[in-house]
């Protein structure tokens, strides 16, 4: 996931796909004896040497990191010509061996909470944005560049440079730390990067598996709190625990590597009404804990989960056409119009619902009513948030085919 400063650069971090290249060899040779074709051998890219900006104290860990340079595409494919299929006789196309898939496109894989994106290969000066834990981004160039603060900067898509030191970022998609963290990384292609959200009622954050001893030391009110939880499970729910999910999962915690303290948000505790996001629930002893966005564990019995929001907008003109009426805040009444021109309620539109409008309006009792595309159904103008075509964009540029009527408000 990539968060960007005001320059509005966008970095997409999808899991790399694979492109398959197939070559079919067709030879028109006369009546010759058939012979088998040998499939091209697979060749791994040569390991290239590089220097990482790693302090001596981290040298042991750096040896296990991925190589810091990427072989060129020509080097990856040149060796495949070493073994050439026999041309003595054509084999049926169905018997041709499947070629080996092409290697994944070169990417940077992120192992830390912040990997800063710089405008130049230098750690000095302002940054453009950053990459988040478990994400990846495609390289713009496979040639490393040395600069102030790092010996191996790489240019990334669509713009900028990141330091790939093997500790915070790597070129190896099979790096064990990256592979362990990636399943819980936020999704950049979703309106909800994390699957679950909620609100703290006041909780401690644990940066390693929370043993009962550590919990008692970190949570002075733990005994009274667990007694309150037990009463709530029996049916007597205190106001403090209203809305808290007190269920306990049977899921075991995932295997995660030991992470340094600088990896986490620098907060040991969250105050009440703080928003939290999490990806996984697991059981430690008799309590359930949630794996938060920065991989810290938080007690589930101190979190009020938010309800899932399924509201989504409309794609124009696929889903609907302007003008439209949206309904916010609460359900809004539908109206029917009698032959004498009076309007009476006849049902309701749901909160967050919408309806298409015909453009026809009528006034009655100092109220303006709008005809909807539902036969015989009208809506009171002040009940709706109206969206009509405009002739200009907010910055004054003309919109082709736009009209200029004002857009209503709605509550």
Shape designation: flat
Strand content: 15-25%
- Give the strand tally: 23
Strand order of the largest sheet: 15-14-13-10-16
Summarize the main sheet: 5 strands, antiparallel
- Give unreliable regions as ranges: 3-94, 402-409
Mean pLDDT: 79
Q: Output the structural class.
A: mainly beta
Q: Note the total helix count.
A: 5
Radius of gyration: 30 Å
N→C terminal distance: 34 Å
Structure description:
With 411 residues, this protein is mainly beta. Among the domains are: 110 residues, no CATH class; 101 residues, no CATH class. The strands form seven sheets. Strands 15-14-13-10-16 form a five-stranded antiparallel sheet, with no helix packed on it. It has a five-stranded antiparallel sheet with strand order 22-21-20-17-23, with no helix packed on it. The protein has a three-stranded antiparallel sheet with strand order 1-4-3, with no helix packed on it. A hairpin with a 2-residue loop joins strand 6 and strand 7. The longest helix has 12 residues. The N terminus and C terminus are likely disordered.
Secondary structure blueprint with pairings:
Layout: E1 2-4, H1 59-63, H2 73-78, E2 107-110, E3 115-117, E4 129-131, E5 136-138, E6 145-147, E7 150-155, E8 161-163, E9 169-170, H3 176-181, E10 196-200, E11 203-204, H4 212-218, H5 222-233, E12 269-270, E13 275-284, E14 287-292, E15 297-299, E16 303-305, E17 324-326, E18 332-337, E19 343-349, E20 354-364, E21 367-372, E22 378-380, E23 385-387
Antiparallel strand pairs: 1-4, 2-5, 2-9, 3-4, 6-7, 7-8, 10-13, 10-16, 11-12, 13-14, 14-15, 17-20, 17-23, 18-19, 20-21, 21-22
């Amino acid at each position: 996931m990539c968060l960007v400063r005001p320059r509005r650069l966008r970095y997409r971090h999808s899991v790399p796909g694979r492109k398959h290249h197939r070559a079919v060899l067709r030879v028109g040779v006369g009546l010759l004896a058939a012979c088998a074709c040998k499939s091209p051998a697979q060749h791994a890219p040569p390991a290239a040497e590089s220097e990482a900006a790693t302090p001596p104290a981290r040298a042991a860990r750096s040896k296990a990191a991925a190589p810091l340079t990427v072989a060129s595409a020509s080097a990856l494919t040149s060796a495949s010509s070493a073994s050439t299929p026999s041309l003595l006789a054509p084999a049926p196309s169905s018997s041709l061996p499947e070629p080996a898939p092409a290697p994944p496109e070169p990417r940077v894989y992120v192992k830390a909470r912040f990997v800063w994106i710089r405008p130049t290969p230098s750690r000095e000066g302002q940054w453009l944005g950053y990459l988040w834990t478990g994400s990846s981004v495609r390289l713009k160039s496979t040639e490393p560049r040395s600069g102030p603060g790092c010996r191996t900067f790489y240019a990334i898509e669509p713009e900028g440079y990141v330091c790939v030191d093997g500790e915070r970022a790597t070129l190896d998609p099979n790096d064990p730390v990256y592979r362990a963290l990636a399943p819980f990384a936020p999704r950049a292609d979703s309106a909800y990067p994390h699957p679950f959200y909620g609100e703290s009622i006041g909780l401690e954050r644990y940066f390693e598996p929370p043993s009962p001893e550590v919990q008692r030391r970190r949570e002075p009110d733990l005994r009274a709190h667990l007694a309150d939880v037990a009463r709530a499970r029996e049916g007597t729910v205190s106001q403090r625990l209203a809305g808290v999910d007190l269920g306990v999962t049977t899921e075991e915690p995932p295997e995660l590597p030991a992470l340094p303290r600088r990896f986490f948000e620098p907060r040991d505790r969250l105050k009440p009404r703080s928003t939290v996001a999490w990806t996984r629930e697991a059981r430690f002893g008799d309590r359930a804990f949630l794996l938060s966005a920065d991989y810290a564990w938080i007690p589930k019995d101190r979190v009020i989960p938010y309800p899932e929001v399924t509201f989504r907008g409309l794609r124009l003109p696929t889903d609907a056409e302007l003008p439209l009426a949206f309904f916010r805040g609460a359900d809004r009444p539908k109206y029917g119009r009698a032959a004498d021109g009076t309007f009476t309620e006849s049902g309701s539109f749901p909160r967050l619902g919408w309806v298409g409008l015909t453009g026809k309006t009528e006034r009655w009792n100092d109220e303006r009513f709008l005809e909807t595309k539902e036969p015989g159904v009208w809506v009171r103008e002040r009940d709706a948030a109206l969206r009509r075509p405009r002739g200009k964009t907010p910055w004054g540029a003309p919109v082709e085919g736009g009209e200029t009527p004002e857009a209503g408000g709605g509550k």
